[in-house]
Amino acid sequence: MTAAAPAPDPRTTAGAILPLVGGAANVTSVAHCMTRLRLGLLDRALVREEELRAHPAVLGVVEDGTTYQIVLGPGTVARVTPAFEELVSASRGEELKAAQKARNATPGKLLLRRVADIFVPLIPALIGCGIIAGVNGLLLNLHWLPWLTPALAAVASGFMALIAVFVGINTAKEFGGTPVLGGAVAAIIVYAGVARIEAFGQQLSPGQGGVLGALAAAALAVQVEKWCRRRVPEALDVLVTPTLTVLVAGLVTVYGLMFVAGGVSAAIGTAADWLLSHAGAVAGFVLGGLFLPLVMLGLHQALIPIHTTLIEQQGHTVLLPILAMAGAGQVGAAAAVYVRLRHRTDLRRTIRSAMPAGLLGVGEPLIYGVSLPLGRPFVTACVGGAFGGGFVGLFTMLGHTVGSTAIGPSGWALFPLLAGDRGLSPATFAVYGGGLLTGYAAGFAATYLFGIGRPLLSPPPAP
Questions:
Q1: In sequence order, what DSSP letters do the residues of 90-115 get, joined into one string?
Q2: pLDDT, mean over the chain
Q3: Residue 253: its pLDDT value, please?
Q4: pTM of the full structure
């Protein structure tokens, strides 16, 4: 048996990518999400895109108007990004941080990017704790290892019990405040002692407001801190500013934000449950059909706070399994392209290399390498996602709720994270698996029949 080739050194990959995007002087910002290296560039004309796409580590390239995004895949991007930042920083030092704040972006996109930057760093912990919770649930159902399950429950639940604190830290960091002060104010939300406090005629409860309350509390703390920094004498700043920041933002959190954010969080959970239980098939069809365009534009990150809120409230998010059907439609569409365009060896080679990632829920290589450049297959892939989402939504109406205990993975990688009103039952796996198969079939059929025009079907003339 031939040994598997070692993974490329992240520094080598970063060193190869940097000159292809115009060098360090052309880079104004560096960030990453689950799959993409996101760069702000001064002059995109300096990018050698053909060479960049041809690099073995690059799965695709996309421009969203504010950032230049290089798809590297999960795991790889988390290792390459720090190495890339080191290379840029070595050339430009602190200039990178200043330029990052001056990026050219619309207010709406800037806000979405900031929300994503607050929550995306939490995804690895959500995934790890979610899988442990799933394993623990399976052990409980089978009555195995009773001495271990309490410990696993603690390991899986500890992060979620304090997630508001992490959101507060990241929010303060993102908006230019002191991270620990944001965490201190957000910690009030999960403090057990708030149960002794009454606001608006109601007793507060620990965790009321959840991540949305933590985000608002930390954002307020940043504004109070900045106000203090401008007005408090330097000699008193170290004592007065932290005290006023925690006191003012903390009291507003206790006597206002927790109550308001708690109402918003409850409304999100109620609305999601009502929508899927009363109009699940239609809602699933619409959500599954629209998710690919959101991914293409990078707007899907705005859904992270909603997913996180649902996980806090119910232990799982019912939206993610439906949205994951968009990837199934994409896989089906790519399979149809592979079957029909036998003469397009370039496309078939791209599909063969990107299909494993697509099956595991990483759709960018298929989107930007296959369906989007061809046009109509992107639309028919959305049709496949719509039918898959409608399938899952229909069974939710029938009482078979399917959710995910974490966010991030989709496709077949979501199976270890599945949960629902019936726990880890065979029905839960069957509904989600049936949705995937429906998405594959619908995406394939729609693309095979309607997604490939005659010009594409005609082989190129012989030279």
A1: HHHTTHHHHHHHT----HHHHHHHHH
A2: 86
A3: 95
A4: 0.72
